Amino acid sequence: MTISSKLPEVGTTIFTVMSKLASDCGAINLSQGFPGFDCDPELLDLVDQYMRAGLNQYGPMSGVGALRQRIAEKSKLVYGVDLDSESEVTVVSGATEALYAAVAAVVKLGDEVILLDPAYDSYAPAVKLNGGIPVYVPLEMPDFSVDWEKVKTAITAKTRLIMVNTPHNPSGYVWTQNDLDTLAELVQDSAILVVSDEVYEHITFDGRKHLSLLTHPVLRAKTFVCGSFGKTFHVTGWKIGFCLAPPRLTEEFRKIHQFLTFGTVPPLQYALADFMSDPSRYLGLSDFYQKKRDLFCEGLKETPFVFTPAQGSFFQMVSYGHLSDEDDYQLAVRLTKEIAVASIPISVFFSDKRDLKILRFCFAKEEKELLDALEKIKNIKI
User: Fold this and answer.
1) Which residue intervals define the domain Aminotransferase class I/classII large in the entry (predicted)?
2) Are 135 and 127 in contact (CB under 8 A)?
3) pLDDT per position as a tens digit, 108-139
4) DSSP labels for 267-293?
5) What does the mean pLDDT of the chain come to?
């Protein structure tokens, strides 16, 4: 049987490849972005409670009302933004679904979508599968900030959507107020909409605040904000996310969502709703992860890598271009095999696979695991 692939250039993701290699080699896996520890036992008890209460059938398509209300309360507490939980909040099966449904809701054949390069690997496929054309705008080195003049130049009469990400994966760059204001100026008098990936919203460092696009009045009216409980509560395998958008956009979003997954596991939603009644469970996340980032960065000072501490997310990038011309993918594979520590080569995030000689490590791990990894990294030969 001959099949004409819709994504002929797409293979198995680097995250799957490196995690499997780490497993095969018995390596410490600092590649794929998932916590190396379990969630709060109370959250597990709540899930058990609601499963045993018989809430195991289909839930509401838009999400359990109690959880949507908690999300709205969180948005008010953290960002000072009032959301209608009925018409502006949708619970979905992971932020990846939220991103896809948002793109599918508004992108038609021939529409152009601006992507800030490098970008998370699900963005471009979502655009292409819906007939859109990715238009890549390179971020500025070395901090991966946005050159807004380049974005402005990339906008054409066909531009339908701009996809953004803060805190940024893989770099950890956190947007400033100037970033929000400038984006608002570019889109306010146009039909251009925005998809904002904010899954690391509660993981920022050194006193930085995450500035959700919800907080800007112009952007709030034109943006799908996509978030995740997986990153916030250490339950990435649950695949529970949400989308926040004004009623007209939410209406179109839900039309797509209902035919992708329809709904998300109800007991998990009820458990999260109860768990979120204590805001400290997400408000303290930055401090929790900053300790891990600081520990990891302190150890990196004893290695030959060059780095700037991440501004947000739970990833730390390191540069080795001053040491070697070795391909970043080959180096990541070699280090996994030789010193038993897995990382991600940054080239996979770029549309043109450009190799800047940078690796990404995930520090969302137990302290002992980070210390063990650092001891191994100190012995690298590049």
Assistant:
1) 28-377
2) no
3) 999 999 999 999 999 999 999 999 999 999 99
4) HHHHHHHHHTTSTHHHHTHHHHHHHHH
5) 96
Task: Specify the DSSP element, H or E, that contains 251.
Answer: helix 247-260
Please report the domains of the chain, with CATH numbers, ordered by start residue. 14-32+284-377 (3.90.1150.10), 42-278 (3.40.640.10)
Torsion sign (Cα): 51, 53, 57, 59: negative
The two tokens of residue 70 are 């908690």
Rounded to a whole number, what is the distance in angstroms from the first to the last CA of the chain? 46
Instruction: Name 119's bridge partners.
Output: none
Quote the strand ranges of the chain, DSSP E.
Answer: 28-29, 89-92, 112-117, 133-138, 159-165, 193-197, 223-228, 241-244, 315-319, 341-342, 344-345, 358-362
Strand 28-29 versus strand 159-165 pairing type = unpaired
Element holding 164 (H helix, E strand):
strand 159-165
Q: Per-10-residue mean pLDDT for the chain, 382 residues long?
A: 88 88 94 94 98 97 98 98 98 98 98 97 96 98 97 98 98 98 97 98 98 98 98 97 98 98 97 98 97 98 96 98 95 95 96 96 97 94 79
Nearest residue to 309 (alpha-carbon basis) of 164, 143, 179, 147: 143
Paired tokens of 169:
């994966």
Helices (H) and strands (E) in the chain, counts: 15, 12
Distances (CA, A) of 115 to 13, 93, 131, 182: 19, 23, 15, 16
Give the integer Cα–Cα distance in Å for 19 and 309. 24
